[in-house]
Amino acid sequence: MKSILDNRPLLAEKVAEVAEVAGYLWQKGWAERNGGNITVNITALADEEIRNMQAISDITPIGRTMPHLKGCYFFCKGTNKRMRDLARKPMENASVIRILDDCSNYVIIADNPVKPTSELASHLLMHNYMTGKGSNYKAVLHTHPIDLVAMTHNSIFLEKDILTYLLWSMIPETRAFCPKGLGIIPYEMPSSFDLADATVRELEEYDVVMWEKHGICAVSENITEAFDMVDTLSKSAQIYLTAKQMGFEPDGMSLMQMEEIRIAFNLPK
Questions:
Q1: Of 119, 205, 221, 249, catalytic
Q2: Which domains, ranges and CATH numbers included, belong to the chain?
């Protein structure tokens, strides 16, 4: 069977990167059953032949109008598909979609009519926001890190930037590689537009957003960078929780020490 990846090494490389990250998510225990989602904007890799591909699905409404995504293409994990399967056989557990010119509907064009993630509208709202402001961010990752989700069950950590400064203070790399910190969204129904809208608002300030008692969402230039931010935050959470299990409250880096990291790495305030 002919694949959209055939004779397109850059697109094949992008899909392979998604598959690699999907495997990491499964290995870490962050992707139970069909948990988590990945979408990547691949419009820049859509050649004339791709743009002329016929739909292999019915026209499907997004649920919102996405004015900045007209004619865009996305690689999307399939709904009810497992990350471990996406890692092994990405084109059987995901699909490529085209946003129609009305900016309100999409069709699947390859390789199989695998319905995209149930949180597609949420993901597309994030892509619409990023594209609209001229960002070079192309990837959206949603996953369920055990340690970070556990910390959202403590209301103290839900206050603005409390968790950011705690995690920054655990290890210098967190301040360096997650320079914008971690946004917090109080519990909303999964897959709802209320959750999507709240996430977009948080993306005005953060690249990584925590959904209370649910999971985390990260955006970046590519899916590996999005994963790396979550992985780094998770490492900090593990250090904190390990210290607590040992019976003490970790000291953490001081505000002065974290400011030294910010200056040394030329990070935003």
A1: 119
A2: 1-140 (3.40.225.10), 145-269 (3.40.225.10)
